[in-house]
Amino acid sequence: MKQLLQILFLFLTTYGFSQQSLPVIKAASKAATIHEEGQLKRKWNVSPEIKIDAFTTNKLIRPTAIKFKTDIDSIGFILKPGQYKDFIVLLNGKDSCYTRIESPVIKDFRKLKPEIHDTIPLFINSQNTISVKAVLNKIDTLNLNFDSGGTELVLIEETLNNKVKSKLKLYNTPYEVAIGSRVYKTKVYDTKVTGNGTDGLIGWDLFDGMIVELNYDKNIMVIHSRLPKALKRDKAAVKLNMKYFNYRFFTAAQIAHRGTKVNDWFLFDTGYQRTVMLDNDLLREQKFPADQMEVIKKVIMRGTKNNEIPVITSNLESLKIGKHELKNVPAQIMTTSKTMFDANIHILGNEVLKRFNTFMDFQENVVYLQPSHLFNADYIEKT
To answer: Distance between CA 238 and CA 232 in Å, rounded?
Structure first.
């Protein structure tokens, strides 16, 4: 007990917390797990060597239940958006691990004066890859895919090895990237493959707290600090709530075939070039008649790690997003058991999403979709 009090006193004087504000839980092993409501269970190793050992949750849009479990003890609490909770894990009765569970800082730029409406040329190629020009570190001009299913800045190995002049430290160091008239800070990661004809990708979180407009009628991407007022008056626009999972956002959609209708959350993924990717295990759980869908073709696709993914493309009678329905959609059915999320999910890709002018509102965490001139365009798989 005396040793424990000495350890607590050290932490209290170092970090300025009162004794009552630092709960203590016990552990006989470094291995722990973090249970975030609505998310996959995450493995964690407690570390007495780190002054503040912090775990960052998904972007929270409401108070969320968190539970931290060691091999012999646990602590649970409700975490609000932008909040953090501190506690001590006492390892083997002697080593104190100062632990923090934190929600990302809330970003909301709607009060900026003057308002921002930064218009950027948007390019889309025949493979449905959308891209914008960007400058990294004021030196390297890059063509980057805006991938709403990705995060931060990711560059392909070929670009890193043969094009980028900047000396980059991957994974941990933030760098400046200029897009349009604004400069953003982000860490840089590497990958093997991104959208066709691009040097890499930028993810949704670069614009957290803003509104991202993708206008396929005018071929522009606009970064707004406030939602355009005219959008709310547009009767053709549908408004969809966002749900965050594994640091990406999902929206609701409905698939239907032979009288069976299924409503589910879909990854909103402008970086996926096809129509809709349906997870075979989920379809079985949902008793969806995938075996009755007409097979169009079978191909091998490649993931961001250049891994082979066997995919069957079959005709889906109906895909409904809000009040807008697309019929006879050539949908891809994933035959592998799980995606990179280590979970079974469905995906909306840009062959569908380009049919809508889109506003991704990362202030209210909603998406607005307006039918674009591509709404009735032929599908690539059928041409």
So the answer is: 10
